[in-house]
Design brief:
Blueprint: H1 8-30, H2 53-70, H3 74-89, H4 99-114, E1 120-123, H5 124-127, H6 138-142, E2 147-153, E3 157-162, H7 169-182, E4 187-191, H8 200-207, E5 216-222, E6 229-232, E7 245-249, H9 256-266, E8 271-274, E9 283-288, E10 293-303, E11 320-321, H10 327-340
Parallel strand pairs: 3-4, 4-7, 7-8, 8-11
Antiparallel strand pairs: 1-10, 2-3, 5-6, 5-10, 9-10
Helix pairs in contact: 1-2, 1-3, 2-3, 8-9
Amino acid sequence: MSNSKKTPVKSRWRLLVLLVLFLIILLQSIGLPAAAQTTVPAKSAPAQQALTAFDRKAALTQLANVLAQHYVLPEMAAQLSTALIQAEAAGTFNHLQSKAQLVDAVGDWLRVVGKDGHLGLELTQSYGEVTYIRHETDEKRRNNFAFEQLQILPGNIGYLKLNKFVQADEAFDVASQALQFLSRTDALIIDLRESAGGSPELVRYLLSHFVPADTLLWQLESRSTDQPEDVRAKVILQKQLQMPLYVLQSANQASAAEFFSYALQQQGRATVIGETSAGLAHYTGAMAVTDWLFVRIPLARPLFPKSGDNFEQRGVIPDLQIPAEQALQKALQLEQQRQAK
């Protein structure tokens, strides 16, 4: 918990950010040579997608500014912003001739340099608005909001395969119905091996079925608040589910799906089986950079009560580490052994 006094570490971070902002202002004041403003866009690029050198420099300068002020880790924010300014000045991005190319190339650059898979750029016109929610396809919605499979396996073992924590009100209804269907099983296997993340609120709602109401799940620390925000289990109408839990995961499992595994593991509520996950722990928002570009940017980091940390860049380490394709069979074997005792 922090207080109103500035700590030496926070003061150093603020000095770093001020230095980066000074460099950004200095770069803006220098301007572009006239010749550099005449970059000819690729013939195949539509007129609205063409990227002049002036557009590129203005966008990247403003992007550096946004990163410096808002990226969740102040020290990394300063490093990323400085590195981006230096890369632009060195001509790293001079070859880009369309806005779509900038989104791809600079987005990849940010993820590599920042070592944060949540960083990324999007064209505003592709979404029609600046939003942290990635557009869901109609196919995902038709597919029961990514609740792909529900089964009662031999031995009265429940099986739920969930491929994403979809950000939609209807997904909460599907989640409730799925868990109600599985509520009388003697054990439950939750398969997240193909889950690519999604809504932390849906994670919280699902977790609330397995731990007592008001249980501290994690805290959120951000640069916009002095004290961490508690994220606690919700009060739900359904009875708390107390059967043994097994969570299956893979190396590709990311973000919200990792929250689910890690929170249950931290609470001692589930056995996690499979591979170490991707390691994307930060809460991501979206901020406008220009009228045509916005950045998906981590704005908060979770702190879990048992570890006092999270799984960023480390992944969720399973209790039983085996190849993902063997995880379901292993979970069934463990439960059958438990029932046989």
